[in-house]
Predict the structure.
Amino acid sequence: MQIHRTDLNLLAVFDCIYSQGSVTGAAAILHLTQPSVSHALARLRERVGDPLFVRNGQKLVPTPAAQKLIHPVRQALQLLESSLAELNEFDATSARQHFVIGMRPLMEGAFLPSLMRQLQQQAAGLVLSSVQLDRGNLEADLNSGKLDAAVDVFLNLPTSISRQHLASSRIVVLARKGHPAVQSGFIAQQDYLNQHHLLVSSRPQGHGVEDLLLAKEGKSRQVVARCQQISTGLELISQSNLLLTISESLVNHLYDPELQQICIAPFQAPSVDTYLYWHQSRESDKASQWLRQQIIAAWKQAEVKAIRPSED
């Protein structure tokens, strides 16, 4: 008998008839009509080539073939039922699962520590990996399960990708404590343009967002150094007169007011919006829902620590 050609509902009917000893009793339990159960039994008899039950008075008595079949059928039905039930449950305290989140390296320092603290407190058995996302393949990576979720700025993605806004962040300027061009948390635009600048980026070349914004005003700055990590950038500006221009959410928990000062960027700059992305096929998945809740909570926790420079 080829299982892929068999209606699995027939096995549930078989199990119920075996337990009840009658078609009528099975029909009542399964909430089906008696003819429907009789038809299902006839189909199963044809599939296995055995009557399965013979009548003895008012009872249907299982044949030797039915007696041999009932145990593996019940095991299979129980396994299938428990597997389906697991789809609607997720116990983080006992789960053994590996989650993979795609994000830019610059976001790790701002967000990952909060998320890891939460996971260690609530779900010690989980494994979390942060990997660099490929924006060109993001839809495919989320669809295939290569990524469980992604965190990035606004991206123009198809409707198969769901998103949730996490935060809006200002663009700010960081300088060492006592930098001559920064006075009381303020830097004039011309002073800003006259300084040497540091760019933190995982890309080997190209301008930063702030350079594009300045270009719209017909202005430019001089970038004389480039590094990949925010922590390295903060170390560099603490030991020089370089300026670092960056989204506030990326530095708010790394910023050390004893070493650096922060002020609002002296040019027109829209907020930088950060989003959480996941594939629609995982919308109702309990494990995915739980992960998304943790990401949202971790981002809010990181935002609580945000440094808000004076706008005076």
User: Anything to note?
Assistant: The longest strand covers residues 161-169. The chain has three domains: 3-86, 98-168+272-304, 171-264. The CA atoms of residues 77 and 270 lie 57 Å apart.
